[in-house]
Specification:
The structure holds 2 protein chains of 2 kinds. Chain A is of the alpha/beta class. Chain A is built from 17 helices and 10 strands. In chain A, strand 2 and strand 3 form a beta hairpin. Chain B is globular, with a radius of gyration of 19 Å. Classes of the chains: A alpha/beta, B mainly alpha.
Chain lengths: 487, 280
């Protein structure tokens, strides 16, 4: 049995916050948890992802683990979760989901690409997964299987982000101001932002604008002290409340969120401001309820006023668009899952392929060395040809020795399974097999001439020893080194 | 042989039909591209599907260029009649768009321009050749060429202004679900680009107007007519636009409407030239 990827976890889809918060791993607990899980004999690699929306333990069974290793590993992880988080197994069972093999790979890819997130396309989860992998790798808990899977997951996530629109458009009210400003200005570089009111939301929005390149940010508030404290928090300038008009005239984006009962930014004030600013467009995002901006101001030329309802409507529209884009992302992931599976399988086959190649080369070289003086000392051209022929036969015989024994039932493997594998590995046709079944002596290849009964089994010298690893599940043809060396 | 006879004697080459077909195809492709959800935001990962409309338009442009050259070789100057000039105008407009497209992402403009190029080229081809321009002087040719070039640049500016107005309307009305809201360029980008085009087109158009008046007086024709009146109106509108923008920072919706108005007046002048032979 080769190693298998598995995932066990719960997320916002399956568990309420009350459960998620109990199961979540504080950062300090992760290393110990990794070591604990990895202590189980059926778990070779492990990673713990714990965010506010999901807790997942992703792992891989060791290579060569017996049948059912993944099932045992999963129940071990289940038991570990119940034990370490102090949650009853019954309660956990209600909320946990598990994936194995291809389904686990798909799950990891979907999580990394933010298709399984509460807000589709949100960028944080990828960073969180990268961090989880970094921690696990740092603790020595990961290996080639998870490594390959995570590497691919990260690059697929990037691809999904750039090739589909799942992260396009603001997904929350605080970043919507950025999107609206982009519609008007295209580029926020050098644009100035005015925060009217020192609320949390406007601070968040200002952060988004700054991250997008906005220039100067000014905070003004009825209480100068609060303006100063918010300004200090977000590296902005504080300005006196009395300068409101001049501040509006100088700004490109105004974000208003005061608790005032009546509009603070009247149509008249804005109209005057527009004149002073030589008609430059002005975006006013009014997050306050009751509203801070007189609604009629929206009719002014070059003034774009958006209230909280508009913002929410735009966010809803964007999320709908993201959902539509998710279909395309799923297609990318489906293609990628297949590619990762075969890459992991190929990686697993590497040691076998290496051993096989080394064995073939060793045998051929050893025989060639033994035959060298016969060939060199041959008296005639015919004698030399004869010597070369003999060498070829000896190599073939040596190489065939172990497989023949195994095929005739002298090994622990089922000869019929082996026969199927050999046929797949050496591309033997059906009729060759029928004839070969007619009592061919494995040793008959000795005679010097190619055995007539089985002409196609003559190995072609150019053949790559590395057969398609997927064609033969498991590795039944792996030579037994002890037997071979004694031959 | 007079210039007019030549216009008659040079039939359109296959290149014209090819260019018309390609303009039609580009129209469809631009509309499809506009409706389709594109893979990315700014300029990341353009697929061949994203480039196809532009390539098609480029091919149409080349085909029409071939047609114009062939006629030039046969002695039919692009400025020899309004009929020729119209095809040339479409061609210049497309050229301007292709150049602007190197720097700006203007899919919506393409969706407007490709059908416009098709319509103008087809109209020029279908319209009867005029009789009034026989014995065209060099002055007349330069006048027609410059007027055409100026109008082509104004056409681009106007197309941008039109898209600006639609997008601005969507933003004001908060129509967040419209294709133009999702796909359009930023308002300021279009506003600036449109204005730059007006700034480039205006001096060319001015020289063309002056030459036109000189030419008219040379031929002893009436200086005051609907034609010259409309041309003057167009010129004044653009002048007001430029002055107001420079002096008071006028921009946005009002500037866009003025651009559209100025171009409408310009278009009327061309229409009069085009229709006159038909009306006799």
């Amino acid at each position: 049995m080769t190693s298998q990827i598995f995932v066990l976890g719960l997320s916002w889809r399956t568990a309420p916050v009350a459960v998620r918060e109990t199961v979540a791993f504080p950062a300090a607990d992760v290393s110990a948890a990794l070591a604990d899980v990895r202590g189980h004999p059926d778990i070779a690699e492990v990673l713990i992802l714990s965010t506010c929306n999901r807790v997942e333990i992703c792992g891989a069974t060791p290579r060569g683990a017996g049948d059912g290793a993944d099932a045992r590993a999963l129940s071990a992880v289940r038991a570990f979760l119940a034990r370490s988080r102090g949650v009853g197994p019954g309660l956990l069972a209600e909320h946990l989901y598990e994936h194995r093999g291809a389904s686990a790979i798909r799950h990891v890819l979907r999580v990394a690409s933010s298709l399984d997130s509460m807000v589709i396309g949100e960028p944080q989860i990828l960073g969180q997964l990268k961090e989880a992998y970094r921690v696990a790798a740092g603790a020595g808990a990961t290996g080639p299987v998870l490594g390959r899977c995570m590497d691919r997951a990260f690059s697929v996530a990037k691809r999904v982000r750039t090739e589909t629109g799942i992260s396009r458009g603001a997904a929350n009210v605080s970043s919507v101001a950025v999107e609206l400003a982009r519609h008007v200005f295209g580029d926020l570089r050098g644009k100035s932002v005015l925060l009217v009111g020192a609320g949390k939301m406007s601070a968040l929005a200002a952060r988004h604008l700054r991250a997008d390149g906005a220039g100067r940010i000014v905070v003004t508030n009825r209480s100068a002290e609060r303006a100063r404290s918010l300004a200090a928090q977000i590296e902005a300038d504080a300005a006196p409340w009395d300068d409101l008009f001049a501040l509006v005239a100088a700004a490109d984006v105004v974000i208003s969120s005061t608790g005032a009962a009546n509009p603070i930014l009247s149509r008249k004030l804005i109209k005057r401001a527009i004149k002073t600013r030589r008609q430059r467009p002005l975006i006013i995002v009014d997050i306050a309820v009751p509203r801070d901006v007189e609604p009629a101001a929206g009719n002014l030329d070059g003034v774009y006023v958006f209230d909280i309802d508009d913002l929410q409507r735009l966010v809803a529209e964007n999320l709908k668009e993201r959902e539509r884009e998710a279909d395309q992302a799923e297609r990318i992931i489906t293609a990628e899952v297949a590619a990762i599976e075969s890459a992991i399988a190929a990686e697993r086959a590497v040691p076998t392929i290496r051993a096989l190649r080394a064995r073939f080369v060793d045998v051929a070289r050893a025989e060639a060395q033994k035959a060298a003086h016969h060939i060199a000392g041959a008296a005639s051209v015919e004698a030399r040809a004869e010597a070369v022929h003999k060498l070829a036969d000896r190599i073939a015989k040596k190489l065939l020795h172990a497989p023949m024994r195994a095929l005739s039932g002298a090994s622990a493997h089922d000869p019929e399974d082996l026969a199927v594998a050999v046929k797949a590995l050496f591309d033997l046709s059906a009729e060759a097999e029928a004839e070969a079944d007619g009592g061919d002596d494995p040793e008959s290849g000795q005679s010097g001439a190619p055995p007539k009964a089985d002409p196609e089994s003559e190995p072609e010298p150019e053949n790559q020893p590395a057969a398609d690893p997927e064609a033969a599940p498991g590795d039944p043809v792996q030579p037994n080194p002890r037997k071979a060396s004694s031959a | 042989m007079t210039a007019n006879d030549m216009v008659h004697s040079v039939p359109p080459s296959p290149a014209l039909y090819v260019s018309l077909a390609l303009y039609a195809a580009a129209t469809v492709l631009y509309l499809v591209a506009l409706m389709r959800r594109p893979a990315d935001g700014a300029s990341r990962g353009q697929t061949w599907l994203d480039r196809l409309p532009r390539l098609c338009l480029l091919a149409a442009f080349i085909a029409q260029g071939v047609e114009i050259s062939l006629r030039g070789i046969a002695g039919v100057h692009p400025g020899s009649s309004v009929r020729e000039a119209l095809g040339f105008l479409a061609w210049l407009t497309v050229l301007g768009f292709l150049i602007a497209g190197l720097r700006y992402r203007l899919r919506a403009l393409g969706a407007l321009l490709a059908p416009a190029a098709f319509t103008i080229t087809a109209a020029a081809w279908l319209s009867p050749p005029g009789k009034e321009l026989s014995g065209l002087s060099l002055l007349g040719r330069i006048h027609i060429s410059l007027a055409t070039l100026g109008a082509a640049i104004f056409a681009l500016a106007t197309a941008l202004a039109g898209i600006y107005l639609m997008e601005e309307h969507n933003l004001k009305r908060k129509r967040f679900d419209r294709v133009l809201f999702r796909r359009g360029a930023a308002l300021e980008t279009m506003d600036k680009l449109s204005h730059r085009l007006v700034l480039v087109g205006f001096p060319i158009f001015t020289v063309a107007m002056v030459l036109g008046f000189v030419w008219l007086s040379e031929r002893g024709e009436q200086l005051l007519s609907v034609r010259t009146g409309m041309a003057t109106v167009a010129w004044l509108v653009f002048l007001i636009l430029i002055v107001a923008r420079t002096a008071t920072g006028w921009r946005g919706r009002r500037a866009a409407w003025l651009t559209v108005g100025g171009f409408a007046a310009t278009a009327v002048v061309f229409l009069i030239y085009l229709l006159r032979p038909m009306l006799g």
